[in-house]
Amino acid sequence: MSEKFEQGMQTRRRVLGSKHVDEAEAVKTEFDTPFQTLITEAAWGTVWSSDGISDRDRSMLTLALLAALGNFEEIPMHIRATARTGATKQDVLEVFQHVAIYAGVPRANHALKLAKQTYAEMEQN
């Protein structure tokens, strides 16, 4: 694999945890391997591996963008990642309040609902 892929896997494990990455890798198929390689190299090996901003800030930006664009499926994964990135519950609340003003209350409301559910699950484990 490429250097970007290796860096991406390291960063992905640091942010999401090895358990999550191992589970995702276990269901990877020949069909989606090229896509998984792309996101590992580009998202994790380039963007998330950059030292231009902190993991905490990057985590908050990611949550804001996911909510603002209505890409709710990945919000729980990125809420779980806040345990590793340093973004607090208060940070996440601030992010979704910002989304409410600039991208719409319904999107922020749904994102907040997902965050509450995910935090509750995290506290039970």
From TrEMBL:
<dbReference type="InterPro" id="IPR029032">
    <property type="entry name" value="AhpD-like"/>
</dbReference>
<dbReference type="InterPro" id="IPR052512">
    <property type="entry name" value="4CMD/NDH-1_regulator"/>
</dbReference>
<dbReference type="GO" id="GO:0051920">
    <property type="term" value="F:peroxiredoxin activity"/>
</dbReference>
<dbReference type="InterPro" id="IPR003779">
    <property type="entry name" value="CMD-like"/>
</dbReference>
<dbReference type="InterPro" id="IPR012788">
    <property type="entry name" value="Decarb_PcaC"/>
</dbReference>
<feature type="domain" description="Carboxymuconolactone decarboxylase-like">
    <location>
        <begin position="35"/>
        <end position="116"/>
    </location>
</feature>
<dbReference type="Pfam" id="PF02627">
    <property type="entry name" value="CMD"/>
</dbReference>
<protein>
    <submittedName>
        <fullName>Carboxymuconolactone decarboxylase family protein</fullName>
    </submittedName>
</protein>
